[in-house]
Amino acid sequence: MTSTITYSGDFTIVSQHEKSGAEITTCAPLRDGGTSEYFSPSDIFGISYGQSMLMAVAVLGKHKGIDITGATCELKKSTHPEPKRIGTIFCIVRIPGEYTPEQKKFIEHTALNCPVSLSIHPNVQRTVLFEYGL
């Protein structure tokens, strides 16, 4: 993946995906002088974690006949002040439909071992809950 990241001023950054032209705009949080008009870069980090979990299950589950269409991830991220960093991530992954215990084990293992999960520093406390059949 190639992208161009441009600081636009006023604590706003625009990232553009080279191939598609899609853009993501971020800004600093209020506590840092931003407007909170957009997600912050650390918000995007948290979102990437939730998206990576769902995408890994969707892609790898397809070959096992597992379809998680409609699945959601409710995510809350908090930062620690010193040193300033992401401190905790709490997720509730809700997956509609009925699954066997073996399928649930696959889903949870796949989600918890997605690429972003394996890249998060061990000092970041993570809690992920799975709810099925909603």
Short account of what is shown:
This protein has helices at residues 41-62, 101-112, 115-119, and strands at residues 3-9, 12-17, 23-27, 72-80, 85-95, 125-132.
CA radius of gyration: 17 Å
CATH architecture of the largest domain: 2-Layer Sandwich
Coarse shape:
globular
Strand order across the largest sheet = 1-2-3
Spell out the helices and strands N to C: EEEHEEHHE
- Mean of all residue-level pLDDT scores: 95
The CATH topology label of the largest domain is GMP Synthetase, Chain A, domain 3
CATH class annotation of the largest domain: Alpha Beta
Q: Give the strand content.
A: 25-35%
Instruction: Give the count of structural domains.
Output: 2
Number of helices: 3
How much helix, percentage-wise, in residues? 25-40%
Structural class: alpha+beta
Number of separate strands: 6
